[in-house]
Amino acid sequence: MKKKILAFIMAAATCFSLTACNTDPAGAGNSNASNPDAGNSNAGDSTPAGDGSAIDLVVWGPEEDQTFLTGLIEDFKKQYPDQTFNIQLGVESEATAKDTVLTDPSAAADVYAFASDQLNALVAASALANLTDLSDAFKAITGSSIDDIMAQNIDGAVAAATKDGKYYALPLGAGNNFFMFYDKSKITADDVKTWSSLLEAASAAGKKAGMVFSSGWYNGGFFLGAGFTASMNDDGTTNIDWNKTSADGISGVDVVEGMITIASNPAFMAIADNDISNQIASGELCAVVTGSWDMLTCETAWGAENVGVAKLPTYSCAGKEVQQGCYSGFKLMGVNGMSKQVGWAAVLAEFLTNESAQMKRYDARQLAPTNIKASESDAVKANEMLAASIAQDAACGVLQDVGDKYWDPTATLGELIAQGQLKSGDTAAIQAALDTMVEGVTAPVE
């Protein structure tokens, strides 16, 4: 197995010198290259032997994954007992990984999880290693090429990890969309079919139904369901038509009026971004729009037997009931293109995202696997929450592909609605707010 380590070091070093990463993929400064015994290992041994020098790596993952990741990292060390690793684990949400990494990519973690819509910006900043160019080196130590690894995952996840025909991340999980969780002891499956019936039932139960309005990820679902679009151009700018009339004959003003009707209802809770889990735990909610990551929080707050899941409700808009849509995406695991141990980081990233890891992550967090074998397991197929996620995507799920300028203006629009600063019937003010939002979203990339 030392032969595999040697091949890995040499191939990875060659690969990344060509990509100007100036890295030392597997401790190449103290590598096996001068070890006369490197060619005398048992090729069938699955435990590679290192040279004794420690490999320092940093991994970032969300707070809810810390215990789970700690166990996986210990399993990784056991996989390579002859190699010493110093692996530090830090907290970083997939949702905010891009912003933190881009502050200083050279100081960021070697391995980190992130949402798939962040890939383009991370690649542009050299904050993601080109895993395709590492394929031969990777195969030398793991026995599988990057193509082999990707073929084990569903097509959508592979596409989300790909840019210009190259792989820049490993699929971590699917179901990165949002739908409705509700407390079956308070409201019924029929209640959650429309926002009007949901809020009426929540009021009768002395509870609230909530979602985040101050985020373009969540509030975009109202526009997507009404036939509006938002898409990213090759230069990183965003096309968006929310201040016009959609192909379905609904105006952007109509959508905002529908949102105002929801937000102004006393039984509605406008939740701050990144505060959903806390509000579920508070006990005030009987229904909430969120994703699979909050399943366990709902079970704790309401009791596992009381947690219901469903696609998003319809909402009243322009005299009709419109299905609320959602953005869909994937969670990915990336290797920092500026890592000093980029080779070993890639091996660790694969270990944290393989079939076994995805099933363990599913067991711990109910996160939908992208690995084909894992997604076909009996446990995953029987999961009601994943069925709701799939139903939402089927009803109106849109793969998220927007530029960086999209987020702040859409969040501001949602906040204006949530705080009651836009009033029903004030068409001129609503149209002006939409125009301002679109102007900000479509601004050139600096």
Structure description:
The chain has helices at 2-18, 66-79, 97-103, 119-124, 135-142, 146-151, 155-160, 195-204, 216-225, 252-263, 276-282, 295-302, 342-351, 355-365, 372-375, 378-381, 384-396, 407-418, 427-441; strands at 55-61, 85-91, 111-115, 162-163, 166-167, 170-173, 179-183, 208-211, 230-232, 238-240, 268-270, 285-290, 307-310, 314-317, 320-323, 326-328, 331-335, 397-399. The chain is built from 19 helices and 18 strands. The N and C termini lie far apart (49 Å). The strands form six sheets. Strands 2-1-3-17-6 form a five-stranded mixed sheet. It has a five-stranded mixed sheet with strand order 11-8-12-7-13, sandwiched between helices. The chain is an alpha/beta fold. The relative contact order is 0.16. Strand 1 (55-61), helix 2 (66-79) and strand 2 (85-91) form a beta-alpha-beta unit.
Helix and strand arrangement:
Layout: H1 2-18, E1 55-61, H2 66-79, E2 85-91, H3 97-103, E3 111-115, H4 119-124, H5 135-142, H6 146-151, H7 155-160, E4 162-163, E5 166-167, E6 170-173, E7 179-183, H8 195-204, E8 208-211, H9 216-225, E9 230-232, E10 238-240, H10 252-263, E11 268-270, H11 276-282, E12 285-290, H12 295-302, E13 307-310, E14 314-317, E15 320-323, E16 326-328, E17 331-335, H13 342-351, H14 355-365, H15 372-375, H16 378-381, H17 384-396, E18 397-399, H18 407-418, H19 427-441
